[in-house]
């Protein structure tokens, strides 16, 4: 898979390194000569150019890319790169970094963004995820289709504890994608049971999040009434 990354700072280089280890073809683009550090990621292609200019993106052959990642520290640049990648070059998957959470509302399909990654929001979500049981935590927003990656740790008192996955009537537009149980990562089957302490990861429409949280967090009636 060919991936172009706009922004060769610490974030862009880190992403490039991870993707190269997974066997992908990487092009790093940056307009600052000081950011062109070929020795730091020698396996990648490098291009000294302004990713907001059509001539630069033509030179980068963006139409050959399967994914474009807008990873600069400037939200305006990331939006322009995303829009050009999607509308001018038809890149199938565009991922954009959100630096200022106040700008997150802009990072949607209108600007060509398929997945928006807000580092501040992700960090706060991971803190919530680490300390919250029974509360739905939004980890990642997929702009295309208004879906989110959400997590909930199943509480002891959940009415669904011990229930098989296939017996649960999940809300519409909701998919259980992973169960994390201790050190194990499980791909859910209909026969798998939901156990207290399980970390459940869903892709769910935003409109279904409250319904999903209510379903998983509802307490059993122990009053006998």
From TrEMBL:
InterPro entries in alphabetical order: K_uptake_TrkA, NAD(P)-bd_dom_sf, RCK_C, RCK_C_sf, RCK_N, Trk_Ktr_HKT_K-transport
Gene3D superfamilies xref list: NAD(P)-binding Rossmann-like Domain (3.40.50.720), Regulator of K+ conductance, C-terminal domain (3.30.70.1450)
Keywords, sorted A to Z: Ion transport, NAD, Potassium, Potassium transport, Transport
GO molecular function: potassium ion transmembrane transporter activity
Any single Pfam family the record assigns to this protein: TrkA_N
Domain RCK C-terminal: 137-218
All copies of domain RCK N-terminal, residue ranges: 1-117
GO CC term (a single one): plasma membrane
Coiled coil: none
PROSITE patterns reported for this sequence: RCK_C, RCK_N
Protein name, entry field: Trk system potassium uptake protein TrkA
